[in-house]
Every structure is written in C-alpha cells, then in structure tokens.
C-alpha cells in the first residue's frame, strides 16, 4: 500500500510520475505539484479504516474460515522504504540517478517521521492539558518541531499558526482552529444589515501600501542540512513599501515549503488590506469570530472572515477580506549535494556590545546590543549562540546595517561632565554616515557613540561636529566623554584600529536569559540565507556581564579626619533614572536597596573592604592602625554602589 507525494495523490495512488518513463502519469485532477501531506493522510485513512473501531465488523470482519480478520493490519507492507540513507539519497544524483523521482514519488524516506499540522497542534494542546479542541480543519505539515523553553500554549502555537495562516477561536465551548479562509458558513444580503445611530450600514477600509509587508522571512531548520537554521525569504516586487515581516519558529521545514509559506503570508497581508464593518440584528447569534462569509453584492465580492463581534443593540462585525490557501508548490529538482547552495556572501563585520544604558531604554537590562555590516550586504543576518561548539540556537535576525568606523589615531582620556574641546576622534568609516548636531541636540541624547577602549570595554561618547577630510576620514569634535558611567574604559584610552559604533536605531538587541549572564558563549553570525555551519558565518566567543545593570560610580568623594583620628568619608550617588532632573529634591535611587562598598588599598593591594547603607562611612583610627601599623598620611580608596546582587 502506498501513495505518491503529489497533489491529489490519493485520487490514483498507483500512478507514478517519472519524466524519463513512457508510463509516467499524475493522478486524476492533480496539479502535478509535490504534496507530502496527502501521502500521510492516505496512509492514516487506511490504517484507521481497517484498525479496530466502532465499525470494525463492517470494515474488517472476522473470517468464518480462519482465525483472523479479513485484512491483517500487522502485515500491511508500505510502498516504499529505501535502504539508501537520507539525505545522500535523493540528493547525491551523481551516485543515484533516480533521485529526482523521490520528490513526487512513493518514498517514505524523510517523510514518515513528519507530522501533520492538525496532529501537531493536538499533541501540543494535550501536553498542556487542553482537551476540548477541534483541529480537523487545519492543513499543513512540518518535519519536526521543538519547544525549546518554558512557554505557555499560546506562546508556542501563535508563531506556528501564523506561519500557516491559521487562527484559533472559541466555538461551543471548544477551541476551534481554522485556516485563513474556510468554507463560507453563509451568504449575507445587504438588505439584512442594520444601520446604527453612530455608524453607517457599511464601513470599508483599505490599508496604505506603506503599512503592508514587501518582504517576509521565515527562520527555520532545514532537514537536508543536518537540521541547521536558515532563512527562507519571499519578496513582493511591485511595491514601494519597506516593511518586513520576520517569523521565527523552532520547526524543521524544507526551504521550498518555508518560502511558499512566506509567499502565502505576503499574499494574505495584501488581500487582508481590505476591511469592512457591518451590523446585523442582535438575534444573529449563529456567527462567531473565525467564520468565513460571502456578501450578495458585487461591490463586496470575495470571502470575508469575521475578525471580531461586538454585541449591543445590534451585533457589530469586523471583517477582513481573505482568499483560499495557496497550494504549496516545490521546484522540480533537488540541490546538488546535501546542503543548500551558499548565498555567495562573505562573513560580515559583527560586533557584540555589552554596554551601559539608561534603565528606561529597555524593559529588560539583559539586552546584548548587536551591530553588523558587510560589503556586499546580504539583506538579513542571523545571530546564533551556543555554550559549546555545536548545537547553535538562532537568537536574532537583523536587516539593519549599523554605522561602524575604525579609529585612525589614538584617543586620549578627557574631561568628564563638561565639553571636551581638546580631543578629536579621527575615524575611517566602514559603513554609514556620521551627522553633525547642535549642542542642544547632543545634550538631549543625540550622536551617541560606543568607542572600543584598550581594556576591551566601550566608552560612550557624544559628539557635535563632523568634518569630512580630504583623505576620506572624518573628524568628530565637541565631545562629551565617559557618558553613562564609562569612566573606567575612558581612562584606558583607545588606540588606532579600535572600532566605533554609532548608537542609533540600526543597532539592535538580543534579550538574554538571567542564567546566560557571565556564561561564555560562542556566537555565529552570518547571512540568514546560509546554513549556520557555512564559511560565510563569523564565529566569536563572548561573555555577557550585563553592564547595563551596574550602578554608576559615586562622585564627589571627600575624606575628613576627626579629632579622634577617625576618618569620615562622604560621597554623592548617581542614578540611571532621572538623574538629570534639576527639580528633584534628591537623586532617585535606582536599586532595590541602597548599599555601598568601600575598598582601601595599600599600594596595589586591597587591605580592607566594608559595606555601608548610607552615603557616608567612618574608617576608625583603630582600623587604620591595624591596616597600616600607623595612621596613614595619605590614603587610597574607592567607593562603589552595590546593585541588587550586591556586586
């Protein structure tokens, strides 16, 4: 028993498509496109029909002559298994010339382990202890799916349903899953519409072109290349829109299927730009969100899906135009060898930035900043990480090209809390432009740079002026140094050849988990269309220390010796939250509790550390003698504010 993996294969499961054979056929009414799902549904239908069930005596009766049923389920043989290993077969066609026949043939290799979308959703819901659901209208399949982290059922299902253009609604006490356009439940007549006092009988809307996606990218794993992550892209050419939709899900899909799903999502978005609002009598309770309807009026041709219903004196329906799902199609040939052809792009220049930021800049401080550029530019770049040298997990995709430069001369330390008009940053741009801004704009946060210091950290600098020199370099002047508490990196200076990044909207973030803090990780960054293992990916090791959560260093440290020779130490704290509010009575405390650590040095050696909870401390004379054998004439100490983890 078998069925070809071809559109409507169950109509004529015995025929076989082979361009090299005179007996080649496609099933009745078939489009001739590949369809792995029909093969699986055909086999499931047969096994369910002949297996034990309510109709077992009718479908598979017990023989009156021999002990057993008419069809021995345990001895059904499936056509066809193949001993040749996947993906070597069918891709190595220089070894096996029948590899192309696998595409639409009866082979179960690399298909029998796949999962239909309805079964997958049912399994996920069951694992989450949901048992009242209806998935029979879902259509689609994946080779594999994983839930990598703790998540709710909704968080797991939303990207999966979004990729396949399906929705979930509540009907009759069940969660019902529907495709974007199911069979219409009714044809409405405009004469039955209700006119309310506030709204006309029919309200139509049409989204602007600039609000619609011109490109859709699906990040997924590919079964033919060792289950590695790649990006499959679909682009609409007849639009000036710059919007992009990115879909990331932990699913294993052939690249061709992922690209067709991306095509479908772009098509659905453009068709769904048409919206409508109508009102029906309050008694029209037979309709629920997710239902598809038609309207008997040539002005409103097509299928309309109910997005929401607002109940009142009448029922207000919010409709979106939809079309039936596209049939998935595949190319008629396989790639040469067991990997997708490389994109042809080289390794990018990618920088990972662990830098301080105001707390108001992000919901979570555990955001690793990323800056990437390349020439030529591939359009999208993937960021994947692993604590090991294998098992890389896709963490982020970016289509933003950062503004990056290199220092052409060294940068010395400069003054803090006032304009540095002596130092000039000389740079050679790698990509992007460096605009000049007024002093007022800079004081309001513009023109922020991350400059790589010689200790490996980054100093945050702002600048006013940018001058293009004759040799193509740029001179940046009018500097504000050591911003956001980066005094220590500034003190080390920056040498020629160090990188510089403009901190604008082209710099993106990757949110990391709490357990990833201080964990060395390997990162691979490269063109999203390539597999992570390919040479177009840059690999680097990086340890995120979450500098954004570190308190700023206190300022205005003073020490005063008392009559009893005790030393009183005072300081002012700083804040990442509203620290520049001149009307505030006191600088806000941006930590859960207030605490400071005083560290006393004897030369380069730490001889005493102690913590206090106020902005002053006493270094007792007896402790000074214990540490130095006599009262010191000069003293070296530091004061640091403690964060929530007392660091």
Describe the fold and architecture.
Residues 359-363 have low confidence and may be disordered. The protein is mainly β and 647 residues long. A hairpin with a 6-residue loop joins strand 18 and strand 19. It is 13% helix and 32% strand. A 6-stranded mixed β-sheet has the order 7-13-14-15-12-8, covered by helices on one side.
**Rg (CA only):** 33 Å
Structural class: mainly beta
- State the shape: elongated
Average pLDDT score: 88
Largest sheet: 6 strands, mixed
Supply the number of helical segments: 9
Q: Numbering strands along the chain, what is their spatial order in the largest sheet?
A: 7-13-14-15-12-8
Strand content: 25-35%
Instruction: Point out poorly predicted stretches.
Output: 359-363
Quick take:
The protein is mostly beta strands.
Describe the secondary structure blueprint for this structure:
Blueprint lengths: L35 H15 L5 H4 L28 H4 L23 E2 H11 L5 E2 L6 E2 L1 E2 L7 H11 L2 E6 L2 E6 L6 E3 L13 E5 L6 E10 L5 E8 L7 E10 L2 H17 L2 E8 L10 E4 L7 E9 L2 E9 L26 E5 L13 E7 L7 E6 L6 E6 L5 E4 L11 E2 L4 E7 L7 H5 L4 E5 L5 E11 L5 E10 L3 H6 L6 E4 L5 E4 L8 E8 L10 E6 L11 E7 L5 E6 L23 E7 L2 E8 L3 E4 L1 H8 L7 E6 L6
Parallel strand pairs: 2-6, 7-13, 9-11
Antiparallel strand pairs: 1-3, 4-11, 5-6, 8-12, 9-10, 12-15, 13-14, 14-15, 16-17, 17-27, 18-19, 18-28, 20-22, 20-26, 21-25, 22-25, 23-24, 23-26, 24-25, 28-29, 30-31, 31-34, 32-33, 32-35
List keywords for this structure.
647 residues; mainly beta; 6-stranded mixed β-sheet; 9 helices; elongated
